[in-house]
Amino acid sequence: MTPGAERHARGHLRHRLIALLPVLGLAMAACVPAGEPRELSGQVVAERPQPAGVGGAPPEEGGEAVDDDCDATASLEPDGTEIPEGSTMAKIRDRGHLVAGVDQNTFLFGFHNPATGQLEGFDIDIAREIAGAVLGDRDRVRFHTITSAERIPALREGDVDIVVRTMTVNCARRENIEFSSVYFEAGQRVLVPKASDVTGLDDLAGQRVCAAEGSTSLRNIAEAAPEPVSVPNWSDCLVMLQQRQVEAVSTDDTILAGMAEQDPTTEVVGEPFTEEPYAIGIPPGDEDMVRYVNAVLEDVRDDRWDELYDRWIEPVLGGASPPEARYR
Amino acid sequence: MTTPGGSWNTDADGSGEPTRTPGYRAWISGLVELAQQAFRRLTVSAARTPGRLSMIAAGLVTLTLLVGLVSTVMAQGKKDAVDGLLEHREPVTAEAQRVYSALSDAEATAAAALLAEESETERLRERYEDSIAQAGASLAKASASAQDVPAAAEQVDIIGQQLPVYTGLVETARANDRQGFPVGASYLQEASELMRSAILPAAEELYELETDRLAEQQRDARSVPVFTALLALGLVAALLATQRYLRRRTNRVLNPGLVVATVAVLVGLLWTSVALVVHGVQVGSGQRDGTEQADRLVSTRIVALQARADQTMSLVARGDGDRHTEGFSKLSRQLGGSDGAGGLLGEVREQAAGGPAEELVNEAIENSESWRRADERIREHSDEGDYGAAVELAISGDDEGAAQAFHALDDNLSQAIAEGRQDFVDSTTTASRALHALPQGLAVLSVVAALGITVGVGERLREYR
């Protein structure tokens, strides 16, 4: 090999070595671990919102067993629809309007119709019947919307003349307020998504079941196996069911029917496992009012009851007849 | 290639044994010797006047250029800081404020839109949509700056995650409401709860963090540059001392070069002082009458918005509205005190007295009074169970209604906030202009001073040759 050729070959080799450098660099880069990709926000999990004031099991009522020995549904005998001077009814008539404590969130019974801006429903119409009797005008009623838990305080403090708000008569309540005769018979059942296998409260052991705070339904749930979830209003139960935060809602079939009407993917299942006789709540001491309201309800049973039932309830729960009035 | 006394390379014969150590030592000792020689020469020459003079000149020139550099950098820093306030920090704070108020507005409007009759709904719906869009856009702008501060970034995260959930709930509420389903009201209450318990607190925190950052940057911009000032005063003292020394040595009263240098330095000092005083006063005034006033107004406006949300929600949540009724009376006391002219509005009035926003604030106080009167009537209707009249009074735009009074209040406060921001921009722009050409001027002056020193001392030196 000539010196020139040798130099040439060496130069060639050097070029090759230089060309190898980046390859070496790359090889080194590949051998040293590169670490993880940098995450700026990490894995984010959605937090589901829930209605204000969600709670759990109801507080024990006074610590003693509920007294079921009384004849809860027996009210005072009606005494005609005359309004004597100085009576509770006369005061209402002089005031010019009846004040009724009602619900605005229970579809079919007491709800706010956004199209008309008015409160509507079976309970609302019953309250209008009373107003029509006392004042001669079904529209002369002012509705005071209250929650389930506010029903008894509102009556005891005299904020309202009557409460017509899916209110079950029972002995414990009777100790605090007066009740009219029963104007509607409901029973507690269970509302679940149609896709659910649940057929009654027994299938819901250990699962979250929603009811309004202060309601008898909540206590019934707490006594059965499920874990109770309480909310301020019944509608909040539907919100929680739709958000899959509870597995079921359990209360009176009337309220559940209203929910099923609002969400066609849910249904009311199981047989009624309680009797929930609804009566009008009246402030303690207003016995004249109790007798008067019972007289009005007698007329309603004979006349308007079927019409109101057909308008609000029949399409969902099927036919029924007015409950028998019982007096002591 | 070899160096005397040793070699940095391995030997050419390839034996591989480096002979570095002796060479290294020789090199070090050579260097030390060089330094010693230089020091000896310096002390010798310093003992004689010409040598001392050239050393003084070198020191003075170095000090002058150093002062020039430091003060130019300082002046440029001040200018950048004040321009940063105008261009970046204040606008970002305003975006954070917009996030907060747009969200509060959305909450207040969503409830009103649900309550209103068909004709009103369209207008309110539009306002709600605009508020949400505004909140989203402002959040995007504010989030870029919030990333520097972990606490702020966390708030942006919360808002970013929850706002879509909130709007989803409002739409669910609306869809149900349009079908006449009462569950709509429940969804709206849930949305309102989410807004109040998670989103608004985050927005408030974000706004407060940004406001603090703005205030801090304003304080920084106003701070007195003590180090630079001491350095400059030291330079003046050195120049005067040199002239006194020269006068004694040469019996000449004035050295024109040094006089020029001294004048240049004093001009620079005076200019900087005046510019910084004007700048500091203007930045301070922009902070006091501008951003701080706007901040107080923003708090006031947000309290008003939240009170409005409570007012409308109390009607949506009929039967369960006590929480909101109490919320309204608490917020309205906070807003106007016990007599309507105290509370936040009273503070704002005091602050705005004599300023451009005075009239707006006075009007806002009147609006707040009639709003409160309207609410009393809404409560009366509501307590009597006359729900329709209560809604009518709360939502409709007639002169006696709550909506009219609230919107007038909101508009007046918004305008007053805009006035506050304008005040900030005016004052801070003046502050920025006060520093106009200062960095460049200081650089030129320091070069002039350095030349003056060189020429002045050089003349004296020539006399010794």
From TrEMBL, chain A:
**What InterPro entries has UniProt attached to this entry?**
Bact_solute-bind_prot3, Solute-binding_3/MltF_N
Query: Which terms in the GO cellular component ontology are assigned?
Result: extracellular region; outer membrane-bounded periplasmic space
Which portions of the sequence form the region Disordered? 49-71
Q: Name one Pfam family in it.
A: SBP_bac_3
Q: Where is the composition biased (Acidic residues)?
A: 61-71
Determine the domain of life of the protein's source. Bacteria
User: Which BP terms in the Gene Ontology apply to this protein?
Assistant: amino acid transport
Signal peptide boundaries: none
UniProt KW Transport keyword: yes
Q: Which UniProt keywords apply?
A: Signal, Transport
What family is this?
A: Belongs to the bacterial solute-binding protein 3 family.
Q: What's the protein called, per UniProt?
A: Amino acid ABC transporter substrate-binding protein, PAAT family
Starting at the broadest rank, the lineage of the source organism is:
Bacteria, Bacillati, Actinomycetota, Actinomycetes, Pseudonocardiales
From TrEMBL, chain B:
Indicate, by first and last residue, each region the UniProt record lists as having compositional bias (Polar residues): 1-12
Q: Transmembrane region positions?
A: 53-75, 226-246, 258-278
Region annotation (Disordered) maps to 1-20
- Keywords for the protein's UniProt record, in alphabetical order: Membrane, Transmembrane, Transmembrane helix
Name assigned to this protein? Secreted protein
Please name the taxonomic classification of the source: Bacteria, Bacillati, Actinomycetota, Actinomycetes, Pseudonocardiales
